[in-house]
Amino acid sequence: MPWSNQSGGPWGQKGGSDKGDKTPWGSGGNGGNNGGGGNNNQPPNLEELIRQSQDKLKNIFGGSGGGRNGGTPAKPSLGGKGALFIVLAAVVVWLLTGIYTVRPTEMGVNMIFGRYTGSTGEGLNYNLPYPIGQVIKQDVTTQRRTEIGLGNRDQRNTLGESLMLTGDENIVDVSFFVIWQVDSANVDKYTFTLADPAETVKVVAESAMREVIGRSNIQSIITTTDQSATAQKVQDTIQQALDSYGAGILVRAVQVSAAVPPAQVREAFMDVNAAQQDAVRAQNDAERDASQIVPKARGEAAEIIQKAEGYKAQMVAEGTGQAVYFKDLYAAYATAPDIIRQRIFLETMENVLKDSNKVILDQKAQGAGVLPLLPLAQPDARK
After folding, report:
1. Does one domain contain both 165 and 197?
2. Which of 21, 96, 240, 348 has the most CB atoms within 10 Å of its CB?
3. Which SUPFAM superfamilies does the record cross-reference, listed alphabetically (predicted)?
């Protein structure tokens, strides 16, 4: 100990009444009364509290030393019970450090001596602490983004990661990104299989895009209407490759940001693309007009057909009636030819002259020979 029980600590001798024996508060202690301060206005005697604590520790560890009245305390010696108590306390504290918390967005990967033993979900969990056990927490809900060909343009041209060869031997500049996350069902594979998951996804995505571009022609790649199909093919290819590696990664989406020809021939390709879009627009307009005109024309055709069928039925009925009429007329003519001939003449002249203006001249009359117009065949106004 830095001071003895008789020394009174660093501030002087204990319990003395000498004015030179002072506590940190400026006056001597009166340890004979209550072991505390010299009077009611002073704080407790810290020396006495320290001394009492030392005595208790000595009792626990089995040590012995000098009392208050003098003598230098002997070095404490640890007994068997005290050492066992310290060891057990240290083991309990060490075991308690194995309690850990997993957030709702995470999963814990437990290891014992570096060997995978299982995964844990959200909440309080336990694993043997370091150095025997270890827990790696992985975020399984955050969606990560890996970009290919979206960096600085000079850097892109240097790396060449965005320039790809198409199936018809053209070069296209493709920029895209991949959205992926950790597969919660295979979090152990994600933890132990890949050293750099983001770089692995980037390399696999670039390889998959080159494979799909190499099987397609440039027109289908640079046309915006076909880029979604290209992105879906790339996503399927990336997922198959990562599954074969046992990467424990789920590919959520692949989005093509741009697919354009190289700068040297870009204007010509843009003209071709614009012409194709105009052709699609004209085709859509034609289909819209056809959807309006064709039903109308079909309705008019059906109306004409119905009128023709009605006219046909009318003509057939009239022809049938006239045939019956002529048969009856012929039978009557056979019995009285003169009468029937005269009747036919009169009926014919009636049909010819009924709608024309008529002027009757009498050749035997003297003078002009014009007779007044007779109102023949005038319709009855009452009808």
Report:
1. yes
2. 21
3. Band 7/SPFH domain
Rounded-to-10 torsion of CA 11, 17, 20, 26: 60
Domain with 50 in it:
1-76
- In the chain, the number of structural domains is 3
Highest mean pLDDT among 89-103, 143-157, 292-306: 292-306
Name which of 344, 346, 355, 358 is nearest 379 in CA terms: 355
The residue that leads in pLDDT, 204 or 162, is 204
Three-state SS for 106? strand
- pLDDT category at 376 given cuts 50, 70, 90 is low
Domain co-membership, 23 together with 131: no
Mean pLDDT, the chain, rounded, equals 77
Judge if 135 and 148 occupy the same domain. Answer: no
| Residue that terminates a domain, selected from 105, 121, 139 | 139
pTM, to two decimals:
0.49
Q: Are 58 and 64 contacting, i.e. CB atoms less than 8 angstroms apart? A: yes
The average pLDDT across 345-370 equals: 71
Rounded to 5 degrees, φ, ψ at 361 are -115, 135
Residue 312, in any domain of the structure: no
